[in-house]
Amino acid sequence: MLMVDLIKKKRNGETLTKEEIYWIIEGYTRGDIPDYQVSALMMAIYYKGLDKRETLDLTMAMKYSGDILDLSMISGIKVDKHSTGGVGDKTSLVLAPMVAATGVPVAKMSGRGLGHTGGTIDKLESFKGFRTDLSEEEFINAVNSIGIAIMGQTKDLAPADKKLYALRDVTGTVDNMSLIASSIMSKKLAAGCDGIVLDVTCGSGAFMKTVEDARALAQEMVSIGKLSEKRVTAVISDMDEPLGFAVGNTLEVIEAIDTLKGKGPADLLEVSKELGACMLILAGKSDNREEAKKMLDKTIEDGSALSKLAEFVKNQGSDEKYVYDTSLFDKASLKYELKAHRDGYVSEINCEEVGNASLLLGGGRRNKEDIIDHSVGIILNKKLTDRVSKGDVLATLYANDKHKLREGSERLKDAYVISSEPGKKNPLIIDVLGE
Ligand code: URA
Which among 183, 204, 304, 358 is annotated as catalytic? Predict the structure, then answer.
């Protein structure tokens, strides 16, 4: 086969056969097909799409591109959670210790930032010395000894997705339903959990901008899960403004820690509890969401979720002192306050642009090789429907480079819309599918 023929085939809107999809994925994983040809194919897929059969074949080709984790050495029902991407979305950092504190094992595999969205692995690396590159054995031992481990995708687990994820991040080919569904489901199926809770975000900060698209993506992933005999729950959640107030790796970690101390933003806690409750149900710990949420509340009230986070941070090579004293995290040296140009209400926040502003400050990657700066980011002083007077601080940006601070603040300026009417907030939890 010739890669250029397959690129043209998709460019012309034809469907790829199973053999062709496996040939591409195997060749790309081995390094025989270069990034530039795969980038062209991704762009063709972006415009022409994949049908359900092609999406399933792509998922399975990527799942079997490397090792399949065997978690049978961990007792209990193992439930993983994955988000389709958000801005200020630090729910994993909140719910993983809460769920583990209820006694349900958390064996979670996470990713890095993608496009304008953040990633749990980048966030966790804000803890100095924190190791996300665990071997399979270390991962299993950690879950067996303290009930929680989070690792990055190893080079052997769905390596095709690992390569494609990094490529799509910098080639404008992330926000395609089939590419997202196959990316997420391939690695989740390879990661060996018994159940998967998916947070399918929708709104201006998500890859799916409408509820209809988010629902279609959720259904696609639930049906791929069913075909693989995995229990999958998909929560459709709102991402029309960032979750919480903090955007940027260390700032988000601090907000997550504050949430476990009972001092977090209500929206972040609500979404974290909804997803956590779905995890407890899949794990057989509870049979209804309200009861499960009460169990999670208790882990904050009695401090067990915070102690679990400290234990987890220490167990993966960092120091638990950060959990108890967040002033120890590195801080950015420069600050800029974005102010309201008129009186009114915050009627719109372009959430994707908030993520892009954080990326430009140095918190995300402009190209595959970029090293991110964990300490930079944004604190939103005003959120949707808030009343503002001219001169009020809308958001505070933190950076370590004057040029990047200017770029980030220019980008953020256009993200805020102030009007005479307050506009509206969407419900945070839009639907739950697949239970
Ligand atoms: N998360 C992933 O793992 N992959 C995507 O394509 C989007 C979000």
Answer: 183
